[in-house]
Hints:
Layout: H1 8-13, E1 21-24, E2 28-32, E3 40-46, H2 61-77, E4 85-88, H3 92-95, E5 104-108
Antiparallel strand pairs: 1-2, 2-3, 3-5, 4-5
This protein binds adenosine monophosphate.
Adenosine monophosphate binds next to loops.
Amino acid sequence: MTEPTPCLFCRIIAGEIPATLVYIDEEVVAFRDVNPQAPVHVLVVPREHVRSVADITPEQSPLWARLLHVAQKVAQDEGLDPDGWRLVSNVGPNAGQTVDHLHLHVLGGRSMSWPPG
Ligand code: AMP
């Protein structure tokens, strides 16, 4: 019987796959996107495996708040204020989610168009 494929981001969090970490605590890890779409492109990821924003339960509200505060800190540390930055979380195939482990994209360092393609 084949083992289930280990989640890519779980493996990064476990230190099995290298990544450029910019923030780490007991609940949340943030690392640079390997294929950056802006001068600053950081992924904010909970250590707990949650598939996407669609799966966050009311009981996980503190974790969700924690993710937002880490995204805010990353943006500040990366010097994205006051020019602005974008926070994105793709859910499912139509939105282009490619890694099924909840993550927030912190994007900045250039102007961005709206709506996204
Ligand atoms: P999404 O398409 O919204 O699921 O975002 C997944 C993101 O993970 C993409 O922007 C990828 O470039 C990024 N990514 C994939 N593999 C790695 C990796 N090994 N290290 C850092 N970022 C990665």
